[in-house]
Molybdenum hydroxylase family protein
Amino acid sequence: MNENPNITGTQFCLDGKTVEVFPAPGVRLSQVLREELGARDVKIGCNAGDCGACTVLLDGAPICACLTPAQQVAGRNVETIAGLYKTDNTTQALAERFQDMGAAQCGICTPGMMVSAVALLRENPTPNVRQVQDALGGVLCRCTGYRKIIDAVVGTAPVARDDAGIVGDPIRHIDALNKVSGAQTFGDDIAPMGTLEIFVIRSPHARAAFQLGDVDAFVVNTNGVEATLSAIDIPGRNLFGVIPQFVDQPVFAEAEARFRGEAVAAIIGTPEAIRNFNPATFPVTWTKLDAVTDVTSAQAAGAGQLHADRTRNVMCGGFVACGDPDAAFANADVTVEGQYNSGFVEHAYIEPEAGFAQMDGDRVEIHACTQAPVMDLDALEAILAMDRKKIRIIPTAVGGGFGSKLDISVQPFLALATLKTGRPVRLNYTRTESMQSSTKRHPSDIRLKIGATKDGKISGFSFYGEFDTGAYASWGPTVANRVPIHASGPYQIPDYRAESKGIYTNNPPAGAFRGFGVPQSAIAQECLFDELAAKLEMDPLDFRILNALKNNVPTVCGQVFSQGVGIGECLESLRPAWDSERKTATAFNVANTTLKRGVGIAAGWYGCGNTSLPNPSTIKSGIWADGTVVLHQGAMDIGQGANTVISQIFATALGISTKLLKIVGPDTDVTPDAGKTSASRQTYVSGNAARLSGEALRASILEKMNVANDATLTFDLGVVRATDITGTYEFDLASLNSDAEGFVFRAEETYDPPTKPLDENGQGIPYAQFGYAAHLVVVEVDTAFGTVKPIKFVAAHDVGKAINPMLVEGQVHGGIAQGLGMALMEEYIPGRTENLHDYLIPTIGDIPPIETIIIEEPDAHGPYGAKGLGEHVLIPTAPCILNAIHDAVGVRITKVPATPARVRAAIKANA
Ligand code: FES
């Protein structure tokens, strides 16, 4: 409705219907589509034209709705993914191909990708790869690695099969349809239009004292502002954190802000008041203080201490030692040493943190994107000082997480705001706000020395790494603990010492990011392995295979696996490509002077689940009286495919098709805790809980029916049938009493990995299983400009058992894309790269073809032998790229990202 007589109506055609809106000049089309016309299928990732998530068609051409003033579409035709999916044959066919290729993971980029692809396909029904890359180049995806999207648009033969969906079947993501049709609702898609909004006041300085002024007067004097929030509004503990001994981050800073972007207060107001709010009018005064922004100055005598209970800003450390590395170095025929550095890496999920909250009687209900709903509940219980029974967490779909959405973000602001106002509220971080305040990959400063005897065996390994954990601990202690366990790589190293430290600085908190510090340590270890092989005049692949960990050989923690160690096979599987690609590169280099090609390899391993700590998952399932098979699946699917994989495992254990399952997702009121989606644990840990639940459910049904254990089960309206060699038997489910949840049969089972604590030397059983990986890459280096272009990847992964091979490939592609970004372009610098045009992530044109080799060395603990995969996939990527650069041009890059400037400088210095 037009309330302003100076604003005239804008009529346009939206998905075939004429609509009229009254936007003020300059109001974004995306705003009008989402908040006035309800087109929440148009996603917002940046509001700056960088990510392309909001792409719609305007008169058939793709445009960013966030950059287009709504008044400019008067009289024109706007199409969105939801409308196209309903009526357009090209879109419907493309949606099928997206599902058949696994081209939508989290799905937040999918509307923009598909809309852009539809525009291309209307003009050119048979595009080639280059044409697809050009047409979709304006849309970013952080999950898929793009290759499956390209395959879907080009029309490559489907990967998914219409199978029953038991273990091993490459079925579609079971939740893919919502993603390709625009129906998926993420954190900012839940709130009704007109809901009160929150604006968070944040520190403009890395370190600053501050004082809030008269906020009551501010509320009274500011139209549309209903209330403010600050530390005094927190009824419970103004602290949160994920590791019990390191709960050190305030919801709202008190007196001093410790990093740029830290929250100090918030205002709650109408959408219009929030949209027009000028932060300069908020009553806060800042006094900038000296900040420590690197680990060296943070540990210097006299440096400002971020937390009074720590010395020289050292948060904590980790340590693993075995044998006698000093004696081994003395016996070594060759040694190598080096210092390797990496910077902050931003998660850059396309969905900024977002959510909605409302009161339900005296209960508070939070709908937000998260990787850990029960941890969110734990945190809110302490912050709100409320009985946890009065808090309900209902996660929305998650538009990418990669570790950062393990930490709370919008949740306490939403809860406090709805409690204070009694009204529904919403909060959607801006891209800059997300990048300023969310956790990052830890910058690292690593010194490493490795020795070897002339027969090629490693003789001595000494690692020391400092990790910048920023202003607060977050998952820093986990990084400090994990790195010394993993810094060896998947190799036999009898004489070993690894020490790590997490250091507080006035930088944004560093936390969990796909690998928990292992990708950083792998860079140093795998690059020095190449140096060592060169000194020994050994082939780098042979050197790795010679030293690869094997069954019945202790790890550096003294853990001995009698089965399941698949790194040797991963490495061996690269040999054909290693031999052929090096020949091709040699021939290329003979024929070219400015462009040089190189081939690199690297390996990695990763322990699945928490380090030497309990991390149980519980899965509940049951049968309703009408024959419905219900699976309460509480493992957050953040695009990786937990909904699909857990369902396949459960269906296999029960002995039915996944198509028969009714999935009930995470909800702290009704679905048991399947733990956090982190540490590559869901396939392994929640998968085992699902297997146990399926097996228990099956056993109770067979027992009731008194039929053989190998009987085939089928469910029909109100009956279950069991068929064994003696015949088919039918059981009337209505003859049983239903419980409070309607179940006539039910099974709730828990699995917790068998680990043991580490002693003071890091000896013990940190993980029940590891997964293994080896990558090969061919790169082309432009020696004149220092640019590095990956040409091809071959990635071998030991996943124990591929529960769904298509999803395995999807994880591999996505991990490689993130590893490539870390290696070549990504570096977050507070105050300088707080958006997606200054902070670069790989685009569709940056990812070369990826050949995925699936190795299945079964693990005795894994469900049907399966191992976790999520983190493993980017651990070898960056070092194999650095090794390939060295192979191409003979320079060793020791600081990532290997930007053109750094590569060119190294080439010049080496000339
Ligand atoms: Fe593309 Fe997640 S599927 S951003």
